[in-house]
Every structure is written in structure tokens, then in C-alpha cells.
Design a protein that fits this description.
TIM Barrel; alanine racemase activity; Ala_racemase_pyridoxalP-BS; 23% strand; alpha/beta; binds pyridoxal-5'-phosphate; 2 domains; Lyase, Ornithine Decarboxylase, Chain A, domain 1; 8-stranded parallel β-sheet; 13 helices; 371 residues; 6-stranded mixed β-sheet; Ala_racemase_N; 18 strands; Ala_racemase/Decarboxylase_C
């Protein structure tokens, strides 16, 4: 147990979210565990997701996939941001599926497969309109490749605006995906796994399911887009993470005291302030204003600038909080605490960034969600 900060992760809530999403979509679920499982801890989350009905794992980086293998995970793993120059030999020997989005990448994988003496398992990523990863200008050339030495397991693409269900770009991307699947089939390649949907599409767009969905944020119980899709609660998801920190110090200060670097804030009246033992080195956004912590049954907003290791909250003159008490930085909101959504809004950002940036100094603790 840490003495100043911890991220409590409720794996039973994860199970609830995954099994529900799995039941609703009725296709294979790839659990997206990139970026240390969105900050919640790669290995424990991956294991729990697989126990809860996910059959695949998805990561961005090769090293994330290798870490999973080294920890005994033998489920299929897709790594989709494996750039040219990566250690493809290691990927192939670890039986890791590789997303491919360039001819250069394909070439290197093929050379590596020859060296290792094993077919490489690949998923062809196609750009259907997001204009980020995936084949676009090299697509016609790709269709002239000889895939004999590859095991083409999948074809996939990614939505740019799935969190805005009515958007016509979603329909265009869907149609473009179907078209590209057909073009690949026309050269005799028909990958068993076709996947396009992220969390938002898994929740809102059943036409996009094909044979598998890739679920990230929703599995962690967070909404892909609070403004367009509603909160976790509206979506029936249970946030699995609760970030807690200790009050390093509680003190009474007079009105008109300047607080923190740059004296960017001033106490309005005599009040009690709490110094929270967590700062931007731990992922608390420095620009956050309008969020805070929850302690002794009420919210205490941030006052002044967030520092590297600490920030100050205004507890209010009547607060019973004391030096050494734990506070909730964010949680599922059910007790009145701030949520990752609130912190996202307070930082001109989104819940995704709030959870993924929780720093390595904060221990992840797995237990059920009770406080
Ligand atoms: C991160 C990512 C996902 C998961 O997105 P969510 O919105 O968190 O569900 C799915 N697919 C790809 C390619 C990704 O990079």
C-alpha cells in the first residue's frame, strides 16, 4: 500500500463491462490494452479481460505485446503500430499478429519471416477515411503482392467519428471498408477476421461489427464521448478505476492568501486548505481548473496551479478533513466525487488522456471498489 497515492482498479467491474459488451455485440471481442491498459495495468487487465469473454488482445506497440507473452498470456495478440525497423523476428517467434499499413512494413515482415522460418500472421490496415494509419496510396500496389508467405489473418480499419453516430463519415468509412474487403477478396485473399468497430461503434453501430470489435475505453467503464453518447452511467458502464491520494497537510489560512506558483489564485475568505500529495508528474494535468478532490462527503476544488508532486484544494472552513486523510481524485461518481470525465473537461481534454497519463509513481492496486 502506498503512503501517498494509489490507483485502485476494480477488476470485477471490468468483468461486468466486458461480459456485457460481449453479450450485446455477439461477435469476438478484442480487448484494447495498449498504454498499460489505459493506465490501469497491462497484465492484470489483460488477464481479467480474457477471463470475462474477450478472445483477443490489442496493443499499439510490439513491446507491449512481448510483455504480455513474457507474462504467460497465450491468447492471440494484435500489435498495430509496429513501425519499419522493429524487431519483427521477435514478433514472429512470439506468435504476435502484426498490423501492416505500408509496403515497406510488409517487405520487412516478409524478410523476417524467411529468417525465422515461420509464416508471419498479419492484419492489413486500410485507410477508409480517417487519414491516419492504413493503406491508401499504396493500396493498388498491395493488391499486386504475392501473399503466399503470409498468413493474412485480418483486415481492419479505424473510425474517426464513431462517437458521433449520425455523422455521414461513419457510413462512408463503413462502405469504403466493405469495398476494400471485396477488392482483397478479388485477389483470392479473404481474411477470417474483419474488424472496424471501436468502443463507440460497439455501443452505437451494429452494422460495423463484422467478425470482431476492438473495445478500449468502454471496457474501463468510461464513455467514449460524454457530449454525444452520455456518461458512463447513461451507458450502463462501471468505471473501474479510482484515483486516491493523501492529504499531506491540512491548514487554516486567512482570506487573500496567494496560493501556489505564480500566485494565480487567492483565498476569498478564511478557509481550510488541503495539500494533496500528487502532481503533474503523476498525471494530474497542470492546467486543470474546475476539478478537485472528494473528501469527508464533499467536493474540494483545486485552488492555484498544480505543481509537480502536489496540488492544493480548498476544503472550506467547515471541513472536518485532517492531515493524513485519503481523498478521491476521481472515481465512478456514485458518492459525489469527481469523475475522469470531469477531470477531462477541466483540462480541455478527455477521460482517455486522464487515465492513460497516470504516472508510474502511482501504484496500481487491484481490489473491489469499496470506500
Ligand atoms: C485505441 C484503439 C482502439 C480502441 O478505441 P476506444 O475508443 O478506446 O474503444 C481501437 N482500435 C484502434 C486501432 C485503436 O488504436
Amino acid at each position: 500500500m502506498s503512503d501517498r497515492a494509489e490507483f485502485l482498479v476494480d477488476l470485477s467491474a471490468l468483468t461486468t463491462n466486458v461480459s456485457r459488451l460481449k453479450k450485446e455485440c455477439a461477435v469476438e471481442v478484442l480487448a484494447v490494452v495498449k498504454a498499460d491498459a489505459y493506465g490501469h495495468g497491462l497484465i492484470r487487465v489483460a488477464q481479467a479481460a480474457l477471463k470475462s469473454g474477450a478472445t483477443w488482445l490489442g496493443v499499439a506497440l510490439l513491446e507491449e505485446a512481448i510483455t504480455l507473452r513474457e507474462n504467460g498470456v497465450d491468447a492471440p495478440i494484435l500489435a498495430w503500430l509496429v513501425s519499419p525497423g522493429s524487431d519483427f523476428d521477435s514478433a514472429i517467434s512470439h506468435n504476435i499478429d502484426l498490423g501492416v499499413s505500408s509496403l515497406k512494413g510488409l517487405q520487412e515482415i516478409s524478410e523476417s519471416a524467411k529468417r525465422v522460418g515461420k509464416k508471419a500472421r498479419i492484419h492489413i490496415e486500410v485507410d477508409t477515411g480517417m487519414t491516419r494509419g492504413g493503406f491508401l496510396d499504396e493500396w493498388n500496389q498491395l493488391l499486386r503482392e504475392d501473399f503466399a508467405e503470409f498468413d493474412v489473418v485480418g483486415i481492419f480499419s479505424h473510425f474517426a467519428r464513431a462517437d458521433e453516430p449520425g455523422e455521414k463519415q461513419n457510413i462512408e468509412q463503413l462502405e469504403r471498408f466493405k469495398q476494400m474487403v471485396k477488392e482483397l477478396q478479388s485477389i483470392g485473399i479473404d481474411p477470417a477476421i474483419k474488424h472496424l468497430a471501436n468502443s463507440a461503434a460497439t455501443i452505437k453501430d451494429k452494422d460495423s461489427f463484422f467478425t470482431m470489435v476492438r473495445v478500449g475505453i468502454a471496457m474501463y467503464g468510461l464513455s467514449p464521448d460524454v457530449a454525444h453518447l452520455g456518461t458512463s452511467k447513461d451507458l450502463g458502464l462501471r468505471p473501474i478505476g479510482q484515483l486516491r491520494a493523501k492529504l499531506h497537510l491540512v491548514k487554516i489560512v486567512p482570506a487573500h492568501s496567494p496560493v501556489g506558483y505564480g500566485a494565480s489564485a487567492m483565498t476569498q475568505s478564511d478557509t481550510k486548505l488541503g495539500v494533496v500529495a500528487m502532481g503533474y508528474a503523476d498525471g494530474i494535468p497542470r492546467i486543470a481548473q474546475g476539478a478537485g478532490v472528494f473528501v469527508k462527503g464533499k467536493k474540494a476544488p483545486i485552488i492555484g496551479r498544480v505543481s509537480m508532486d502536489q496540488f492544493v484544494v480548498d476544503l472550506g472552513s467547515d471541513s472536518t478533513a485532517q492531515t493524513g486523510d485519503w481523498v478521491i481524485v476521481f472515481g465512478d461518481g456514485s458518492h459525489g466525487e469527481y469523475t475522469a470525465d470531469d477531470w477531462g473537461r477541466a483540462s480541455s481534454s478527455i477521460n482517455y488522456e486522464i487515465v492513460t497519463r497516470i504516472g508510474p509513481r502511482v501504484p496500481r492496486i487491484y481490489q473491489s471498489h469499496e470506500y
